[in-house]
Structures are given as structure tokens and as C-alpha cells.
Amino acid sequence: MVLAALVLALEGEAPPEPLGLRGFFYALLREVAPEAHDQGENPFSLGHGGREGAYWARFAFLREELYARLAPRLFALEGQEVRLGHPFRVRGVFQEGHPWAGLSTYARLFQGPAGPDLPLHFQSPTFFRRKGVHYPLPEPRLVLESLFRRFQAFAPLTPPEAVREALMERTTVRFLEGRTRPARTEVDTVGFVGKVVYHLPKATEEEALWLWALGRFAFFAGVGAKTSLGYGLVRPWVSRVQTSQEPGPNNGMLGG
Fold first, then answer.
1. Which end of the chain has less neighbouring CB within 10 Å, N or C?
2. Does the predicted model carry a pTM greater than 0.85?
3. Cα 175 vs. chain centroid, distance in angstroms?
4. pLDDT > 90? residue 124
């Protein structure tokens, strides 16, 4: 089963607006896959970024059939005008050749180096729903719970309960560097941006494999709340404190 992230390179005078990006994508969903709104977990995540003259918007898919329906519509946007809160011209559509584009499969998430240390880079504000409010600290249990929930909703395999319990109960933080940043949602909130190394003490080979698979899955699924607004963009990074060599955030991906 394919996991995919497509990136639209944009030409415009201001960055995409989160609500505008979501509105644009939801309009596409209503046309080609209206049932996607009826699921408890979104089978997609969105993202945006860049700088003046080189903005981008990202659409990642956790279900192969949704990717198959929407990819032709997105590729057809090249050279067209779109409105993502602000007007843009689509300069190109990338499935590879952009840091936030890539293809993988659920099986390939388990390939490549794995160890007891998982470094994640939170590149857009990340926060969690906690007791009715948005909570901005990337605590291990909150991050892993978010990833396990989405993985179990769409992956063709189920995490062993013993592994899930081990990761949820024993994973801790070995390194953290970051800050909060405002996030524009329906209400004012803040989210965490920065780098964290999660550590699983005395990890078995199976536990380390699942820890890293979830880290690679985060590239597509995002982490936390409001991933449909572009928040929770996360990817692995190379850390000095890792005990095993990791070749980069696109490890385990095809064409990434």
C-alpha cells in the first residue's frame, strides 16, 4: 500500500493561508472522494511553507486509493491559478525532487536503520488536544499515541500490543531544542517547533523497528491536531546523539 506526498510549487506574493489551503483541498475531496470526510481519522495531511517567490503547498495521502483519485487532479494544476487564501500560480507539481515530496509503502517504513533513539524535527507548529484545549509540548506518549492511532486506522498491519505498550510506557526524551510559535486555527493557539530525540531504554530489535517505522510514518501522517491545516509537519533528522547511523529523513522512501 502506497504512501505519497505531492508538493505544489507556488508563485505568489504571500504564503498560503491554512484555512484557505484546507478549503481548497476539501473542495477537491467533495468532488472525487466525499466519503473521506466520514472517517474518524483523516486519511491525509496538509502542509505549506517556503519564502517569498518560492512558496509551496503539500498534500500527503495515507490511503493508496485516495492518492490514486486525487493525484491526477493535482498534477493537472501545473501552470494553473489556484487560491489558497491568496492567489497563486502553480509552477510545478512534485512527487520527488522536493524535500517534502516522496513515495513509500507501509512495508518500506520498516526498512533501513533502526535503534533506540528516534530524532524528530517538528517543522510546523505541533500541538495536541488535551482536556479540551491545545497543548504544545511534544511529550513522548502524545506523539506516539497520535502516530499509532493513524497507523492503525490505515495500515495493512496492526502493531503488536506488547510493542505498543512498551513504546507508550517507556519512551522518554533524550534531547529537546525548540520553542513555541503561534498557529492560526479557528482559535488562537501555539505549537512546538524544534528538534527532539526520543529514547526507548533497553529497546528490543522489534521495538526499535516499530519506533523508527512510526518516525518515518510521521513524514506522511503528521503529528498532533489540525494536520488538515498544515500543522504537525514532522520528519526524522540526523542527530549527534544517535547510536546508529541514519542516512537522512527520506530513508525508506521511493523517489523522495
1. N
2. yes
3. 21
4. yes
